[in-house]
């Protein structure tokens, strides 16, 4: 409200000068008109008006003397004694707004009245020129009174305008904003309660956009909180299951060690694979027991050869392949290719990707190919190892591609929960690398893992 009052008063200051200039000009023109009438009355009497009557005419006109020039040679003078010398003369015939404004403000600034001469044009073609002499005391007084009226009117207008603006802002801006703030406070008390999510109602475009954005934010946050709660519950369940499963797998590992001592050639070939699988399962259970942190443990980096690890992954998937499916596994990994990585975590990453490819091909019930290659490369100026896993399957559906690496979002296989790729991406990030989808179309799907050399 105070800002509106100030702005209106500033606007009034800008028009104050022209206003008082116009008022002064009207005042002087009125004196010229009265003086012309008095002069014409004297002219009509052919000079027979007595001195007292002439003085009364001058007094009514508010001037000391009048000079009315009706032609080039004849002048009519109506005069009375001047109380002092003439201080200044003003010609209204060619006055401009700037000059009138300057003269009016100077007149108001003077502390004492003075005698001035005013020159103007007679009205109704009553002559060639009219000149009067008057005292400025009444003019100064009326100018100040007029200024006081302008000030009072400006204050009244500014206060009324400010009140209207204040009420408008309260109704159209503050009230909707207060509703938004109340909704935010109410939602903050129970963000998992969907009934507390704001419903956009404002008719103002900017506020409606803010309400829409807030509604989307609250919906997303409520969904994330619910997912977090489910993950916490799942984590507790998995931790309890992993504890018991670890004990059972430990027993199975001991039995596998005894089987490894068998003299049967086929058992001897399968026993190391069984022991390795059981060891990895035990390590996975132990890692899962740390699920309360909602993150994977940091990788234990060691320099290793990639080829044997890839062979283990392929062998495990071959054993798990449906006997009715015709799937060809192709690998191209140099036996001398080394990298620094956590062997268990990298096995899980490659196992997830190859298993997804195998399951996708099995679902088509058609022959297919899974390729796994690795090369040394430079990515964004940093050397490292690029591992590519591709298949000739049907490709990923659009919904899966949109949320591919998000937990519980990117599941493709019926019955899957969408955790495999999310876990794989997290494990690769832990190595300082990247897991990305290179392509996925009717010709198949290809993923790329890049791991830096200096990890």
TrEMBL record:
Keywords: ATP-binding, Coiled coil, Kinase, Membrane, Nucleotide-binding, Transferase, Transmembrane, Transmembrane helix, Two-component regulatory system. The keyword Ribosomal protein does not apply. The chain crosses the membrane at residues 6-25, 150-173. It catalyses: ATP + protein L-histidine = ADP + protein N-phospho-L-histidine. GO terms for molecular function: ATP binding; phosphorelay sensor kinase activity. It holds the Pfam family HATPase_c. Its EC number is 2.7.13.3. The keyword Phosphoprotein does not apply. This is histidine kinase. The gene is sasA.
């Amino acid at each position: 409200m105070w800002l509106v009052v100030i702005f209106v008063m500033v606007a009034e200051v800008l028009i104050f000068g022209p206003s008082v200039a116009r008022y002064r000009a009207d005042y002087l023109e009125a004196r010229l008109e009265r003086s012309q009438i008095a002069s014409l009355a004297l002219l009509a009497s052919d000079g027979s008006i007595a001195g007292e009557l002439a003085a009364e005419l001058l007094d009514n006109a508010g001037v000391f003397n009048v000079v009315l020039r009706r032609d080039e040679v004849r002048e009519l003078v109506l005069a009375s004694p001047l109380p002092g010398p003439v201080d200044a003369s003003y010609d209204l015939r060619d006055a401009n707004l700037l000059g009138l404004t300057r003269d009016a403000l100077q007149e108001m600034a003077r502390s004492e009245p003075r005698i001035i001469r005013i020159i103007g044009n007679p009205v109704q073609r009553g002559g060639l020129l009219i000149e009067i002499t008057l005292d400025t005391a009444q003019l100064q007084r009326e100018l100040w009174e007029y200024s006081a009226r302008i000030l009072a009117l400006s204050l009244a207008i500014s206060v009324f305008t400010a009140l209207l603006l204040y009420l408008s802002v309260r109704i159209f801006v503050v009230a909707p904003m207060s509703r938004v703030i109340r909704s935010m406070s109410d939602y903050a008390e129970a963000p998992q309660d969907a009934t507390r999510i704001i419903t956009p109602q404002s008719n103002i475009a900017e506020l409606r956009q803010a309400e829409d954005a807030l509604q989307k934010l609250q919906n997303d946050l409520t969904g994330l909180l619910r997912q977090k709660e489910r993950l916490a519950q799942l984590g507790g369940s998995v931790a309890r299951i992993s504890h018991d499963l670890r004990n059972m797998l430990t027993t199975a590992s001991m039995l596998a060690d005894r089987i490894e001592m068998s003299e049967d050639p086929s058992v001897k070939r399968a026993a190391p694979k069984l022991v390795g699988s059981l060891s990895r399962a035990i390590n996975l259970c132990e890692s899962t027991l740390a699920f309360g942190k909602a993150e994977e443990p940091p990788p234990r980096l060691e320099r290793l050869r990639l080829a044997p690890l890839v062979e283990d992954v392929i062998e495990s998937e071959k054993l798990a392949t449906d006997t009715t499916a015709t799937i060809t596994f192709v690998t191209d990994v140099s036996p001398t290719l080394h990298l620094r990585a956590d062997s268990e975590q990298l096995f899980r990453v490659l196992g997830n990707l190859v298993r997804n490819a195998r399951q996708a091909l099995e679902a088509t019930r058609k022959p297919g190919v899974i390729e796994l290659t690795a090369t040394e490369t430079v990515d964004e100026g940093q050397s490292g190892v690029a591992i590519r896993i591709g298949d000739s399957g049907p490709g990923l559906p659009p919904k899966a591609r949109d949320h591919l690496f998000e937990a519980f979002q990117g599941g493709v296989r019926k019955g899957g929960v969408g955790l495999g790729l999310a876990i794989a991406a997290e494990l690769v990030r832990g190595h300082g690398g990247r897991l990305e989808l290179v392509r996925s179309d009717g010709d198949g799907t290809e993923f790329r893992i890049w791991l830096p050399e200096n990890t």
